[in-house]
Amino acid sequence: MSSPSAQLHGDADDLMPITPPLDEESPFATMMSVFDEAAEKLQVEADAYAILRKPDREVTVAVPVKLDDGSLAVFDGYRVQHNMGLGPFVGPLRLDPRLKIDELRALAGWMTWKCALLNIPFGGAAGGIRINRDRRSRGEVERAVRRYVSSLLDTIGPDRDVFTPDKARDEEIMGWVMDTVSTHDRHTTKAVVTGKPVVMGGSLHFRDAVAQGLTTILALALAHQDMDQGHGGARVIVQGAGSVGGNLARLLHEAGHSIIGFSDITSAYYNEAGLDVSALLEWRDRTGSLAGAKGEFERMTNEELVLMPCDVLVPCAVANVLTSRNAERVRAKLILEGAHGPVSARADKVLHGAGIPVVPDILANAGGMVVSYFEWVQNRQGFAWQKEVVLKRLRRFMTEAWSEVAKLQGEREVRLRTAANMLAVQRVAAADKLRGIYA
Amino acid sequence: MSTGSATAGQPASIDEFNPFQAMAQRFEVAADHLGLDKGLREVLRTPDRELTVAIPVLMDNGSMRVFTGYRVQHNFSRGPCKGGIRFSHDVNLDEVRALAAWMTWKCSVVDVPFGGGKGGVICDPRELSLGELERITRRYTTGIMDILGPDRDVPAPDINTNEQTMAWIMDTYSMHVRRTTTSIVTGKPLNLGGSRGRTEATGRGVMLATREAMKKLGLRPESSRVVVQGSGNVGGIGAMLLHREGYKILSMSDMYGTVLNESGLDVPAVLAHLKKHKRLDGYTEAEHLPNSEQIELDCDILVPAATENQITSANAERIKAKLVIEGANGPTTVAGDAILEDRGIVVVPDILANAGGVTVSYFEWVQDRAGFFWTEEVVNARLEQVMVSSFAEVDKRAQEFGVSMRIASYILAVDRVAKVYRLRGIYS
Q1: Closest residue by Cα to residue B376 from B150, B205, B231, B199
Q2: For residue A353, how many other CB atoms are within 10 A of its CB?
Q3: What strand order describes the sheet that includes A358-359?
Q4: What is the spatial distance between Cα A170 and Cα A193, in angstroms, rounded to a whole number?
Q5: Which of A95, A298, A395, B315 is most buried, judged by most C-beta within 10 A?
Q6: Contact yes or no for B337/B361 (Cβ under 8 A)
Q7: A159 vs B167, B175, B179: nearest CB
Q8: Do B191 and A431 touch (CB under 8 A)?
Q9: Active-site residue B216, yes or no?
Q10: Is B320 exposed, middle or buried (0-12, 13-18, 19+ CB in 10 A)?
Q11: Which residues of A touch B138 (CB under 8 A)?
Q12: A-chain residues within 8 Å CB-CB of B171?
């Protein structure tokens, strides 16, 4: 620990230089292997392939912040814009002490495919600040976000690049972004960022958008697989109890499905006769986690939970839950990726071999992006939609995307993931080709 | 109501076959009915702005050529200008001016909040490579950049320009202004901000205009025999939609010939044949006639949806239809009009009957501004609403002024522009 920053600021991890290690099962490698497969199946021309594989633009900015103790710290800020063929860029603003530009590149690409697949007129972007928000005060984080946004003013805007939240709890940060841009613009600019508090132009149903989308896809996938839901609906394991997993468990329970497995980072519970979801969610709301909850269930680890028998497994927590190391032992009949990249590239092939369909993240968890888009539309119109309208339109977008993926999967006899990526890559390549290269 | 001279500002000799002179004559008649003063007439005749640009282009063989391009904005009182861009060797400024004025009246009749504009580049697209066309388009766009914009002037496809051309314009404009600007141009591909239902919009408008006229005349589709001149985007789709509504389509045509089946054509089969063979020749379920005989066929409804000057002083006496729906621009001459009117034949004029295209262009612009895209059902329902209410408005003027639907449509259009002009006043 002899770097100047370490001397200045102790062992603050957000100020240390980082060389990103990229292992084989990194989300970036996962995304690119799927993209390559889709591009190959589509016989994408070499020129188009070269354009699609590289981000359009990467901006790095220094983010100087006056710390609470009066000293100055300079954080790293990035924005990667992957492809603008279909419209303005859109993507998350991530605050993370281990932020790597490679990860942002992958995420930006991911956003491009997701928007294209859902027929949303955006290209993908991703950005963030390498800062540890748990160790920084709220004031320090706010100053960092505002300075970062000011440095990017020439790059962002409602028709240029739109920020979305990285985490469900990021409302407040999104509010700062909107205020900073509006102050500079000398007029209210809401559509530059989504996931804002409702009073600042946030869309209704933003918080449970991903879960609502997953619920829609689950019903469509069950029907498509001819999986008889019987009297008690499907038997579902939901890994994760945050804004995605928690809302999903609630929605599926309300829809008459049986949640037989449920977990968060602290605990995992299983009962093949069905869990009392309401009681568990109440416990989580009261205590902050599922730890120590009481009821009729078996306690196990998260690793064990995802291998338990069920109709549908929905990993909604972290990446790489299923890898080449455990994919062979999966006993689900259908998997929906609620999180980003919970199934690794190798695991995907193993599961395919075992005849277990995986509905890929860019389709399954796209509800959040769809409602982000809706928020942008509402902000541009200056007119907020009612809850029912948001929900009805969200279901329409999810259903259309599912139908197109299922159709292509049948025609080309490929995995759902490949079909989804083929559709997405095809649309972006077509738009790039139509627009041509502006010289 | 009639004051002033109907021929003020007209060229000395009137050519029956010049559709722009016909438009100008009809404007003057409408202005007479409205009692417009001389100054306002002058304003409405004169384009607000005209721009001529040199377009230097590096050709594929390494040489340099300079093309000439125009953009005329006829009148922006009612909103940004709207109108096509054509690439053709016979583009000239006079024609572009007339077409721009035409667009002002058309937008006004269907009450879309646009003024009229038109543009063109003198070039022969058949002699140009795709790359050369792209470079012409981009340089032309750059040249007229300062007068373009979603709230200034919004181009659209026209002769020899298409979705691809519009995509280039959108890309060039977006790169210049550093932001995605889909609403700068309409007629774009679906995945770049185009509208659903646009391809068939003009044909659908023709069908709706026919339906409204039938109601007015108390006729029923099942007992109506239709002759459609043309089989392209307007005639073909129009015939298809009329066929679906239960009309009996007796005859259709392309540039090479006419098909006729007295008991009704199987329109989907005709269009399938056309798609496969590129011409109607060889379609077996019909008689084949030369095009010169088609227009005088015995029928109830005639839909000229091909080119201008089809019903003239030379043949108007022999038209058998009770109802003429103008799918094309300017298919009836002024002299032809007078004869049809004498004979009690109702003509639904071009600026109303074929305005479905510009209406859905307007919808495309609205959707692009909102960033939210309508389903095809919504587009079609809103188009229907516009066509039905515009038809009713024109019909109301026809009763009120005791004139043909043609003159009534000009009265409605000119009145709307004149009213807005007076309200806005002259900014000096």
Answers
A1: B199
A2: 10
A3: A298-300, A268-270, A258-263, A235-239, A310-315, A332-336, A358-359
A4: 12
A5: A95
A6: no
A7: B179
A8: yes
A9: no
A10: middle
A11: 438
A12: 435-436, 438
d(CA B7, CA B334): 14
Structure tokens at B165: 């051309």
Q: Distance between alpha carbon A321 and the CA centroid of its chain, in Å?
A: 15
Cβ atoms of residues B30 and B407 within 8 Å: yes
Q: What's the gap in Å between the CA of A117 and the closest CA on chain B?
A: 11
**Per-residue tokens: A398:** 């999810």
- Of B82, B106, B118, B248, which one is the catalytic site residue? B118
Burial of A375 (0-12, 13-18, 19+ CB in 10 A): buried
Closest CA to B259 of B290, B303, B232, B301: B290
Task: DSSP for A118-148, please give it.
Answer: TT-S-EEEEEEE---TTTS-HHHHHHHHHHH
| CB pair distance less than 8 Å for B193 and A121 | yes
Nearest 5°: the CA angle B217, B234, B299 is 40
DSSP label at residue A61? E
Please state the separation of Cα B327 from the chain's center in Å. 8
Nearest to A160 by CA among A216, A81, A221: A81
Q: What is the DSSP string of A321-357?
A: SB-TTTGGG--EEEEE--SSS-B-HHHHHHHHHTT--
pLDDT tens per residue across all 439 residues of chain A: 344 444 444 456 666 544 434 454 566 666 777 788 888 888 888 888 878 888 899 999 999 999 999 999 999 999 999 999 999 999 999 999 999 888 898 889 999 999 999 999 999 999 999 999 999 999 999 999 999 999 999 999 999 999 999 987 899 999 999 999 999 999 999 999 999 999 999 999 999 999 999 999 999 999 998 886 666 689 999 999 999 999 999 999 999 999 999 999 999 999 999 999 999 999 999 999 999 999 999 999 999 999 999 999 999 998 889 998 999 999 999 999 999 889 988 899 999 999 999 999 999 999 999 999 999 999 999 999 999 999 999 999 999 999 999 999 999 999 999 999 999 999 999 999 999 887 6
| Rg of chain B in Å (alpha carbons) | 21
Would you give the DSSP letter of residue A385? P
**How many Å apart are CA B276 and CA B337, to the nearest integer?**
37
- DSSP notation for A269-303: EE-TT---HHHHHHHHHHHSSSTT--SS-EEE-HH
Residue at A78: amino acid letter: Y
Put simply, the answer to whether B179 touches A157 (Cβ < 8 Å) is yes
Tokens, residue B173: 């404009």
Chain A residues at the B interface, defined by Cβ less than 8 Å, are 84, 86-88, 121, 157, 159-160, 373, 376-377, 380-381, 427, 430-431, 434-436, 438
Q: How far is CA A62 from the centre of its chain?
A: 26
* pTM of the entire predicted model: 0.87
**Whose CA is closest to A308, among A270, A253, A265?**
A270
